[in-house]
Amino acid sequence: MCPRVAENKEATSRWVSSVLKSLIQSNPKGKGKFFKNELQERYAVKVGSQTVYRAKRIVLENLKSNHAKAYAKIRKYGNVIRVMNPGSDVFVALNPNVVSVNPTFFRFYLSFKACKIGFKNSCRPLIGVDGCHLTGQFGGVLLSATALDEDSGIVPIALCIYESETTESWTWFLRLLRESLEWEEGRPICFISDRQKGGLAAISKERPEASNRYCFRHLIANFIATFKNHNINGKFWHAARVANCGCFDEAMAAIRSENAKAADWMMSEPVERWARHGFDPRIKSDHITNNMSECFNSCIKDERDKPVLQLLEHFRRRIMVRFCEKWEEVEKFKDSITPYAKEMLDTNEKEARKLQVIHGRGEWYEIVDKYGKKFLVSVADVMCDCGMWQMSGLPCMHAIAMFMYRREFAQDYVHWYYSKEAMKLTYNGTINPIPDESRAQTNDCSTSTVPPTHAIADVCSQMGSHPKP
């Protein structure tokens, strides 16, 4: 019997590129030895370095071609979105500094009508903005604007693809976002971000009337990088979470007694941007982290290396299905408030049963906890000393204790932002599908768009130097 031979002349570079295509695409800078070992482990086949090199070249050249073809069609794609989803905002900016036969892609902005109207009509006016890097052939950054619905789920408002995070590119995105929303003058609005480069300056320029919040998770990460002190983290989180000035001062005094420099470092940042007690109560959101943007980024993480049209189609399909599913979900609600609001009330009610209520004849009620600490609650002013009721729009444990004393339902005092009615308005719009490229009917007769000039690296640099024979 002949012994098995690992080397096989039929294992050409074309065959290797077909069986290792996905692996090479996900590891474009992988070493040849890595792919040779994978090939031997999967198929018990040995190939030379030259074969692996040529296989990588085939895969990456095809990948580059796919990315380039996607940018060539992006203006036509935007026109199809406008036709199938009237009222949606799509803008494709071309690079004025690049001279070529065909125009060069620069930036892309998209905001579906259903998303922007849903947010404007009924969501809390808090917008999370964040950017994540695209890892495809031509790089770039994807910036998103995301809000929270009445059940604390995410509502994407707009996204933008552009060259890099600069004040100018942020300003371009926020200007288009402002024009899309057509926000009424005097109506409160707030942005929460990770303090990205150029982002704060752009917000101040385009939305000078808006309040700003910093994601406290990123702020504390900067603190750790500066002080290398993990033991004091919990105390800072406590200080950021308390919703009244007195408790905040107590928390910071305790931190200062332990580490004055750490307290000074944190207080050097504007308190109203990271501490809950300093937030604008009209926003009706007590969020101190930008989790909404993190959730959005996690939804597209597997598409960040794909051609741009594949990424955009993934986004469109996800929110198209989400709007439909959420509408059907809301129709089944049995309460007048959302499940999230109901869950928060149930949690606070358990704690409210441990509190003592003292009342005379006026609108003010005195609530005493088991430690003897008292809080004043007013129905007429919709406020509690702890600050959480007016900050979040959901009755806190002290307010619920008062309602139990008055034999009233706390649910009747939940802010409209958490109602079934509001959530129906959020998801009232429809995002329509778009036809196949071969059947798309548009009036677009524009020339193809050349990919952006900010490519991550060319194929040869991704493959490394040519292997020696």
From TrEMBL:
<dbReference type="InterPro" id="IPR007527">
    <property type="entry name" value="Znf_SWIM"/>
</dbReference>
<dbReference type="Pfam" id="PF10551">
    <property type="entry name" value="MULE"/>
</dbReference>
<keyword id="KW-0862">Zinc</keyword>
<keyword id="KW-0863">Zinc-finger</keyword>
<dbReference type="InterPro" id="IPR006564">
    <property type="entry name" value="Znf_PMZ"/>
</dbReference>
<dbReference type="GO" id="GO:0008270">
    <property type="term" value="F:zinc ion binding"/>
</dbReference>
<dbReference type="Pfam" id="PF04434">
    <property type="entry name" value="SWIM"/>
</dbReference>
<keyword id="KW-0479">Metal-binding</keyword>
<dbReference type="InterPro" id="IPR018289">
    <property type="entry name" value="MULE_transposase_dom"/>
</dbReference>
<protein>
    <recommendedName>
        <fullName>SWIM-type domain-containing protein</fullName>
    </recommendedName>
</protein>
<feature type="domain" description="SWIM-type">
    <location>
        <begin position="375"/>
        <end position="407"/>
    </location>
</feature>
